[in-house]
Amino acid sequence: MKEDKKMVTIIVEGTPHEWPKDEITYAEVVTLEVPNYSQHPEITYSVKYKNGHGNKPEGVLSPGASVKVKEGEVFSVSETGQS
User: Fold this and answer.
1) 3-state SS class at 52
2) Are 45 and 80 contacting, i.e. CB atoms less than 8 angstroms apart?
3) Tens digits of per-residue pLDDT, 8-44?
4) Would you say 38 and 26 are in contact if contact means Cβ atoms under 8 Å apart?
5) Pair 51, 57: CB distance under 8 Å
6) What percentage of residues in the chain have a pLDDT greater than 90?
7) CB 47, CB 26: distance < 8 Å
8) Mean per-residue pLDDT over the chain, rounded
9) Separation of alpha carbons 48 and 55, rounded Å
10) CA separation (Å) from 36 to 7, 31, 32, 55?
11) What is the dihedral of CA 31, 75, 48, 59, to 10 degrees?
12) Domains of the chain listed by start with CATH number
């Protein structure tokens, strides 16, 4: 078992989550906030982040995209309704 993956704490909608990766995807962020997300693909969410990495410390995470995570990064997830 590899021990070189370090955990970071990210904040999703005010809740801290330990995350073992260098990156997190749109679907992974939404699933942390909405555990049954995968059963409801018709619902779209707006995912924003701040306190992120260097050249892009804040922005919007689009479906299918991923972003590098860092300690203390903050994500907000809000339902946008039907697309």
Assistant:
1) coil
2) yes
3) 999 999 999 999 878 999 999 999 999 999 898 788 9
4) no
5) yes
6) 71
7) yes
8) 90
9) 16
10) 24, 7, 9, 33
11) -130
12) 8-82 (3.10.20)
Task: Give the separation between CA 3 and CA 64, rounded to whole angstroms.
Answer: 28
Instruction: Take residue 62 and report the two structure tokens written for it.
Output: 């689009």
List of residues 6+ apart from 58 with CB closer than 8 A: 48, 49, 50, 51, 52
Q: Which residues partner with 75 through β-bridges? A: 12, 49
pLDDT greater than 90 at residue 61:
yes
Positions of E strands within 1-52: 8-12, 15-19, 23-25, 43-50
CB of 27 within 8 A of CB of 37?
yes
- Measure the CA–CA gap between 69 and 52, rounded to whole angstroms: 7
Q: Is the pTM of this model over 0.90?
A: no
